[in-house]
Amino acid sequence: MLALSLLLTVCVSLLLNANVRARDQARFNNLVQSTSDRILRRLDTYIALLQGTEGLFATQQEVSPDEFSAFVQLFELQTHYPGIQGLGFSQRLSDEHHSIVLLEPRDSRNQAAMGYDMYSEPNRREAMARARDTGQPALSAKVTLKQEIHERKQAGFLLYLPVYRGGQTPATVEARREALVGFVYSPFRADDLLNGIFGIEHKPRVSFQVYDGTAVAPEHLLHVSHDPEALAREPMFTTTKTLTVAGRSWTLTFASLPSFDETASEFVVVPSLVAGVLVSLAFFFLTRAQVRAREAAERSTDELRVALAERARVEVQLREADRRKDDFLAMLAHELRNPLAPVLTAVQLMERKLQSGLSTEREREVVERQVHHMRRLVDDLLDVSRVTRGKIHLQKRPVELVAAVGRAVESARPFAESREHTLRVELPRGPLWMEADPVRLEQVLSNLLHNAAKYSEPGGRITLTLAREAGEAVVRVADTGMGIPAEALPHLFEPFMQVARTLDQAQGGLGLGLTLVKRLVEMHGGRVEVASEGVGQGSVFSVRLPLLPAERIPAEPEEERLEQDVPEESRRVLVVDDNEDAAEMLGEVLEMDGHRVTVVHDGMAALECLDALQPEVVFLDIGLPGMDGYEVARRIRQRTTGAGLRLVAITGYGQASDRKRSREAGFDAHLVKPVELDAVRALVADLGRLPGQRECTFNVTSG
Ligand code: ADP
Q: Can you tell me the distance from the alpha carbon of 488 to that of 506, in angstroms, rounded to the nearest whole number?
């Protein structure tokens, strides 16, 4: 913008300059012309003076010095013809000799010239010959006058006019030469003449130099109008002009003087340029200030827009976080209320039953199971919080992965089987060692297996693969379940992330399991990834863990720390009860004691697995649906395999008639619900000795 306006200013100034210069040039030219004119006019006047003098000689044969003096005085030379040195007559003595015979005024200078033969000097001779031959006035080249008797000499020249006999100019050159009497002439001191013409100008605006002839050379210099010092400055205008005066050329060089230059272009152009530049600058700064203000406004608008967008983004995030928090609280409430409802019911029931002397074992079990579930939820919550705050410290030691995977599979298997999934495990040939906290490592793996079972429709397939890949151990848990939509994959490991919250609420969960998995795996120096082809396409979770370098693998195989105490004798036990909770609980207790337990829920199933299992003890509920416990007992006893086993009746009825009936059906023992664990343990452990039958109460809440 500034450049443009300055360019414009410069253009305008240049234009103005050109204009002004053209005008100044014209003014200068005028000055030159008027100067030349004044010189020419003055010389013309002198020619006219000579012509008048020539008239004197034409009319008189002899002109005496006094007559001549009187004649010259008429002209008042000093007054009217300033600069003229004198007026004289040079007489022709012969063709080659001439002599100044008359010269007025008779001052000392002119006296010095009297009698001088001007024809003897080439410059004068040339002019005299020219005047003689042409009959015209002739100006001589530069000479030093005879009058220059003083030290300060001036350049001079002479003006001749031929005087012929008879006063007429003969027609031919020969005749002119022949008729020539002499010349009326005027000597001029150049400086005196020209200073006389121009006088002392008040404020001269041009200087000029007059050269004799056409060459501008010092030897031809006739006059310098001004002290050269004044011209030291480069003049704005210069020009050269040739004047022709009485058949001789003078060359005049002109230069403008500072007095002219100052009034010329500078006066206009410089102020106009300065003014233009100032205006441009003012315009520029004004415009720039405006542009800057606009830019600043635009910038702040942009910043505002960015800030608003950022704020909107943060708001969305906050809303999302808020929504997740609300969702989480709702879910937490739901997850906690879920187990609380049966707990509350159980407690109320217990109260009533205690009042009526009934057993509250079932309720206690319910409470225990639900509390256990709640504890898992709270543990997850605490674990995540602890892991996030870096409060979990791993108890690392060399761990063999094949064994660790095996333990995790075993802990997850019951749940997987309860959902009728097939669980396949593919293990590498050799052992894989890593440094890990075995408890946390198994927590990771069982969590993944648990999820695989939880998020697959019953009857799915779960495959766990452990392999060594590129120096790492890789555990893959793949399922054929509901899969994960692509958009959820990147967020799956975030806290409280749940894709299908409504699904399978019965299993519960807070959306923290995978967060925990990820953090724990990372604490082990590994990483976890998830892949899924999409909804309904199953999922694959891969955990990559660093392996222990060969030199750090312990020589002694790791002892199974978690292995439970194996009792002296491990029995094969079959539990038959349609009350699943009761059956599972009993099975679990016995398993914990180291027995191999199979649980079934009806008589037919019991009979079917009898041959395969070869149980040593069977706990058989009497009140089974379809075929009751007595019938099942009878059938077992009829089979050869049933001969040596111990049959224990479990029933809510403990009357003597009931015991009798069970004994008849082939039972070895009769336990009344809720059974006492010690009695159960004793019946299994000591097969040789039957403990006495004990009466217990049992509250049946499920079929
Ligand atoms: P929770 O199971 O308590 O909801 P998790 O952190 O274990 O929390 O899992 C987060 C979510 O990831 C689950 O709610 C579920 O939507 C999804 N998810 C986890 N494992 C699987 C899987 N094997 N198949 C499909 N979805 C899964």
A: 22
Q: Cis peptide leading into 105, omega within 30 of 0?
A: yes
> Cα(445)–Cα(163) distance, rounded to whole angstroms?
147
Cβ of residue 500 lying under 6 Å from some atom of ligand 1: yes
What tokens appear for 462 in the block? Answer: 């779960």
Report the C-alpha gap between 525 and 242 in whole angstroms. 107
Residue 239's Cβ-side half-sphere holds a number of Cα atoms within 13 Å equal to 16
Handedness of CA 244, 245, 247, 250 (dihedral sign): negative
Q: Is the CB of 16 under 6 A from ligand 1?
A: no
User: Which of 377, 455, 457 should be mutated for ligand 1, with most atoms under 8 A from CB?
Assistant: 455
Q: Is 482 in the pocket of ligand 1 (CB under 6 A)?
A: yes
Residue type, 369: R
Query: Is residue 499 within 6 Å of ligand 1 at its C-beta?
Result: yes
Residue 135 near ligand 1, beta carbon < 6 Å = no
**Sign of the four-CA dihedral 38, 42, 43, 45:** positive
Tell me the backbone φ, ψ of residue 411, rounded to 5 degrees. -75, -25
Which helix (H) or strand (E) segment holds residue 222: the answer is strand 221-224
- Cis, bond preceding 549 (omega within 30 deg of 0): no
Contact criterion met (CB below 8 Å) for 649 and 624: no
- SS3 state at 248: strand
Q: Which helix (H) or strand (E) holds 27?
A: helix 2-59
Q: Helix or strand or coil: residue 627? A: coil
The tokens describing 131, both together, are 């005047």
Given a contact cutoff of 8 angstroms between Cβ atoms, the answer to whether 177 and 157 are in contact is no
Q: What is the pLDDT of residue 532?
A: 96
Please give the C-alpha separations between residue 346 and each of 340, 369, 556, 673, in angstroms, as whole numbers.
Answer: 10, 12, 50, 17
- Distance between Cα 498 and ligand 1 center (Å): 6
**pLDDT mean for each 10 residues of the chain (703 residues):** 68 70 84 88 86 81 84 80 85 90 87 90 93 93 87 89 88 91 90 79 79 90 77 80 90 85 63 69 77 82 84 84 73 71 81 86 80 74 75 86 89 86 89 91 92 92 93 95 92 83 55 90 96 94 94 65 49 89 83 86 89 88 89 88 82 78 89 79 71 32 27
Q: Give me the DSSP letters along 174-189.
A: HHHHHHEEEEEEEEEE
Amino acid at 368: E
pTM, rounded to two decimals = 0.40
Q: Enter the tokens of residue 702.
A: 């499920």
DSSP, residue by residue, 83-152: TB--EEEEEESSSS-EEEEEEES--HHHHHHTT--GGGSHHHHHHHHHHHHHSS-EE---B--TT--SSS
CA distance 379 to 507: 16
Other beta carbons within 10 angstroms of residue 9's beta carbon come to 21
Tell me which of 498, 504, 521, 528 to substitute to probe ligand 1's pocket, judged by most ligand atoms within 8 Å of the beta carbon. 498
Pocket test for ligand 1, best of 334, 457, 492 (most atoms within 8 A of CB): 492
| Ligand 1 midpoint to CA 373 (Å) | 17
Distance, CA 526 to ligand 1 centroid (Å)? 20
